[in-house]
Design a protein that fits this description.
By secondary structure, the chain is mostly helical. The protein has one domain. 81% of the residues lie in helices and 0% in strands. It is built from 11 helices and no strands. The chain is globular and about 50 Å long. The two termini are 27 Å apart.
Length: 253
C-alpha cells in the first residue's frame, strides 16, 4: 500500500512536471525502480504512464498550439512518432545491462541540460530575433534524432526540442512550449505502443495503473498551474529533482 501511494504521488508529480516544462522521467523512473521493477521495465512503464498525462497537458494548451516556424506541425508529429518508435525498439533490442549502465549517465546528461536551460533559452531566444537558417528537412532530421532519444530514455527531450526550434526556426521558447508538449506526447504515444506490445510492462499492472491514472491528473493540472506559478519556482523544482535523482543513481551504480 505504501509503495502504491508513492507511485500515485510520483505519477501526479511526473505528469505535472512534463506539462510545465519537462522532467517527469526523473521522478517516474526512480520510483518505479524502487517499487521493484527492473530498469528497462520501469522505463517502459513510465513512458506508458506518461502518455495520458502528456495528452492532458496538450489539451490544456490546445488554444495555443500553432505551426512550428515554417514546418507544418503534422510533419513534425509524424517524425516524432517515428523516432519514438525506433527509440523504443532500441531499448527492447539492446541488452538490458546496457540500459542499466547507461541510466546514470543519461540522467546526468539530461540534468546538465536542465542546469544549462537558462543559457539554452537565451541562445534560442537570441536566434529567434534572426531569420530562420535551417531548411525544413534539417529541422525534421534533428527532430527525428531527438525523438529516437526520447523513445529510448526521454529525459529533457522537450528542452532539446525548444533549443532546436529556436536555433533552426527562430521560434521563441515560450511560444514553442505548447508544441513541445504535443510532440513529446507523440514520442510517448508511439513508444508506448511498442512497450505495450513487446515489453513486460503489463507484468506489473498495479504500479502501472497507479502511475497512469495519477499522471493524467498531474498533466492536466500542471498545464493550468504553469500559467499561474513563477517560472523560476518551476525550474527550481525540476532541476532539484534531477540533481537529487542523478546523484542517487550514481551512488547505487
Amino acid at each position: 500500500m505504501t509503495e502504491t501511494l508513492w507511485v500515485l504521488l510520483a505519477g501526479v508529480a511526473a505528469g505535472a512536471l512534463n506539462a510545465v516544462g519537462g522532467g517527469g522521467t526523473f521522478i517516474a523512473l526512480p520510483v518505479l525502480v524502487s517499487a521493484g521493477l527492473p530498469p528497462v521495465t520501469a522505463n517502459a512503464s513510465a513512458t506508458i504512464s506518461l502518455v495520458p498525462g502528456a495528452a492532458a497537458g496538450a489539451w490544456a494548451y490546445r488554444r495555443d498550439i500553432a505551426p512550428v516556424g515554417g514546418v507544418a506541425l503534422p510533419r513534425l508529429a509524424a517524425v516524432s512518432a517515428g523516432g519514438g518508435l525506433l527509440g523504443a525498439l532500441l531499448l527492447l533490442t539492446l541488452p538490458a545491462r546496457s540500459f542499466d549502465l547507461a541510466v546514470p549517465w543519461l540522467l546526468a546528461f539530461a540534468t546538465l541540460l536542465l542546469l544549462a536551460r537558462g543559457r539554452l533559452g537565451a541562445w534560442a531566444a537570441g536566434a529567434a530575433a534572426e531569420p530562420a537558417r535551417w531548411a525544413p528537412g534539417t529541422v525534421l532530421t534533428g527532430q527525428f534524432l531527438l525523438s529516437v532519444y526520447g523513445g529510448y530514455f526521454g529525459g529533457a527531450v522537450g528542452i532539446m526540442m525548444l533549443a532546436l526550434w529556436g536555433v533552426g526556426l527562430g521560434l521563441d521558447p515560450a511560444a514553442g512550449n505548447p508544441m513541445r508538449i504535443l510532440l513529446v506526447a507523440a514520442v510517448y504515444l508511439s513508444s508506448a505502443g511498442v512497450f505495450l506490445a513487446a515489453s513486460d510492462a503489463l507484468s506489473a499492472p498495479v504500479p502501472l495503473a497507479a502511475m497512469l491514472t495519477s499522471a493524467v491528473a498531474g498533466g492536466y493540472g500542471g498545464g493550468h498551474l504553469a500559467r499561474r506559478l513563477s517560472p523560476r519556482i518551476l525550474r527550481a523544482v525540476i532541476t532539484t529533482t534531477a540533481v537529487v535523482m542523478t546523484i542517487a543513481y550514481f551512488s547505487h551504480a
